[in-house]
Amino acid sequence: MNNADANAAWSIVGLLISGLVVWGGVGALLTHLTGLRFFLPVGILLGVVASLYLVVARYGRA
Amino acid sequence: MLTAGRLLAAVPGQCHQLIGHRNGCGFPAPSTDDFDYANKNLFSLHLGSIDFQFNKPVLLELIGVALVMALFLAAFSRPRLVPARGPRLQNIMESVYDFVGLGIARDVIGKEGQKFVPYLVTLFSFVLVVNVFEIIPVAQFPASSRIAIPIYLALISFLIFNYVGIRRKGLIAYFREIVLPPNVPWPLYIILSPIEFFSTIVVRPFTLAVRLFANMFAGHLLLLTFTVATTYLLQPNIQALFGGISFLLTIVLIGFELLVDVLQAYIFTILTAVYISGALAEEH
Known about the structure:
The structure holds two protein chains of two kinds. Chain A is built from two helices and no strands.
């Protein structure tokens, strides 16, 4: 494992958390404002999928 | 300094950790109160609206600063080119310097890392010292378990890696690189850019601070639980057996906490280096 890989590994954890928090947070906010409960799970799923996609786009094709 | 005797005298009849079981208080479980030094000032000063309180975590922090300074000054004030054999101070401090300078700065950042060695060595030494206060008799409190210290250290690291990134690439190019990942069709930026921005600007300093704080907080609670259990269980009956086991576990856990102390100092430093390295790296 070279240094670029090690650096990437540290960043990937942060990205996965961020996706969950940002879009899960937007979902929670919409649920809170509209009262429609499906926004929260949709937001969380969107966040997880988006952050996984982001990890592949940024580090997967190096 | 607060001595144990004065501490006990200060709370007559209350459920104190060391004497609670004699007053029928049950097991005095350690809690966040053990981190609260608000009413245990060594001295306090009121200058108008400024409330200056000097307590044990502050004292330990200042001792940590002084200790790191003194050790490095003593080791390198009259350096020898060919060090004497045996464990002289210069050899020990040089090994700390090499560990951070070669093992972290050069390996993670590369040849540009030399500029950041002073900061990284200082950071590592200071965090290590305030962590290890956790298991030093009399001190027995990791100053880094008060979140103010990790927050300030994380803030300094955060400012440094953003500053070097902005200086290298320019403000707009630096942030464009953060929020616009490569190899992505542009409509997806609507979804991905907030994640990237949040990850770099919020999650990085937050996790840096919380990781150190939470580890030291949990470590101190762990040691407290077993030391308090030892004093609680050591009574002249069968309980003493469990008190003895608790005592042995305390010794094992002190060794474990030493490992955690070193590891957390190392992780804080290497992550700072990783973030600096990322800010300097050219995008391909």
